[in-house]
Amino acid sequence: MVEVKICGLNTAPTLAAAISGGAKYLGFVFYPPSPRNINISDFARLASAVPPNVKRVGLFVDANDDFIARMIASARLDMLQLHGAETPDRVTAVKKHFKLRVMKAIKVSSRADLRQAKRYEAVTDYLLFDAKAPKKMRSALPGGNALTFDWHLLNGINWSKPWMLSGGLNADNVAKAIQVTGARMVDVSSGVEENPGTKSRERISEFLKAVSAI
């Protein structure tokens, strides 16, 4: 079975759609420049509706310890997703300080990026492979840019840690992405939105059904 993470949730109806559809991970974005950013009070309200068998993941981008601690204090998180330029040393420090599982996002456009990802295997609990935005892309976010990368780049590489596939996934292409990469976990954000930051219950349902049909 392929597990799904729905990232960037910020309303009760879309949270409910993700849970009822079978998502195993729910992502909450704590990055103010993002249209998917959620404030502390809304996160605390939504987090209280998450059942214990579904993991709550907080997405941070080069955040300091004080900022992470404030989010954790508002409601329980099961995992921290580091989606910025955090070094292996920073990942190690976050794990040690907060004593939570950590997932490090790796931005991919070439095989060289995957070689760099090997630096994180020993210090993180999960890896997440996302598309690297081209330098010429204006107003690019650290993630959620609706971009894919060449999935064949992942072929032939063995990872010692579990990993998620992300980047431009939607209900139409997720089966192909899983077939090419062999991913056992997938992460979606822009692919289940009506516009940036606004999730669609219908698209969430369609995506989860597409994965469950594999």
What percent strand?
15-25%
Look at the structure and give the mean pLDDT: 93
| Tally of DSSP helical segments | 7
Please estimate the helix content: 25-40%
Cα separation of the termini: 8 Å
Say what the CATH topology is: TIM Barrel
Strand order of the largest sheet: 7-6-5-4-3-2-1-8
Shape: globular
Count the E strands.
10
Q: What's the Cα radius of gyration?
A: 16 Å
Structural class: alpha/beta
Highest-level CATH class:
Alpha Beta
What's the CATH architecture name? Alpha-Beta Barrel
Number of domains: 1
CATH level-4 homologous superfamily? Aldolase class I
Pattern of helices and strands? EHEHEHEHEHEEHEEEH
Largest sheet: 8 strands, parallel
Compose a concise summary of this entry.
This protein has 214 residues and is of the alpha/beta class. Helices cover 31% and strands 21% of the residues.
Describe this structure in words.
The protein has a single domain (3-212), classed as Aldolase class I (TIM Barrel), CATH 3.20.20.70. Helices cover 31% and strands 21% of the residues. With 214 residues, the chain is of the alpha/beta class. It has helices spanning 12-21, 40-47, 65-74, 88-98, 111-117, 174-181, 201-212, and strands at residues 3-7, 25-29, 55-60, 79-82, 101-108, 126-131, 163-165, 185-188, 193-195, 198-199. It is built from seven helices and ten strands.
